[in-house]
Amino acid sequence: MKKIDPSDIKNIIEYEKVRIPFRSKIIGMKNTRRLKVGELITFTFENRHTVVFQIEEMMRVERIVDDAKIMNEIETYNELIPRDDELSATLFVEVDEQAKVKPVLDSLVGLNKDSVFLDVAGKSIPAVFEEGHATDDRISAVQYVRFKLSREDAETFNDPTNPARIVIRHKNYNATSDITSETRKALIGDLAQHSVNVWN
User: Which residues make Cβ contacts (< 8 Å) with residue 135, sequence separation at least 6?
Assistant: First the structure.
């Protein structure tokens, strides 16, 4: 999937003019791409549209107008863009009560490639976690993961008759969730893309 470059990003003034309908579209897209796995963990699968939204929202909130700072945001968020034959997702640990956040996160230390998988027709594909969001004794509530598929894996995933699910096997958290047909359709579309244009 094509990376984002500065020409894809609106400045703050132009973004404000289209933000409400654009935000509505992205919320709908994110809902389609969201998969809850167990009680506490949610995956949101990313594409160029969702990443452009995050960049433009960040620029709006932080009032970023400097070209170098905008480029830094683009380079940072480009890491969420899935490459060919790859799915990319933001993993959220969702805890409503503030007092429970630290105990829950402490219990999930070790959540990594050995415990999070995309299962396609019985084949387990380990998640690749972005570095910098966990140590040996703590983890962040937000993680960025990739599932790197072989061409054969992608072809199997693209056939909706083959089962596909996210599996978590952690000593303190075991959960499985089938990828819904709606989400699967969106991800099949992602795998088919080598370059797309951002909405005008």
Answer: none
Residue 70 to residue 6: CA distance in whole angstroms: 8
What six digits make up the tokens of 55? 């960049």
Identify the CA nearest to 199 among candidates 12, 36, 21, 11.
Answer: 21
Tell me the β-bridge partners of 43: 35, 91
pLDDT values of the chain reduced to their tens digit, one per residue, 200 residues: 788 999 999 999 999 999 999 999 999 999 999 999 999 999 999 999 999 999 999 999 999 999 999 999 999 889 889 888 899 999 999 998 999 999 999 999 999 989 999 999 999 999 999 987 777 788 999 999 999 999 999 999 999 999 999 999 999 999 999 999 999 999 999 998 743 444 44
Element holding 120 (H helix, E strand): strand 116-120
CA distance 109 to 93: 12
Identity of residue 38: G
State how far the Cα of 127 lies from the Cα of 115, in Å rounded to an integer: 8
The C-alpha atoms of residue 127 and residue 114 are separated, in whole angstroms, by: 8
DSSP conformation class of 20: H
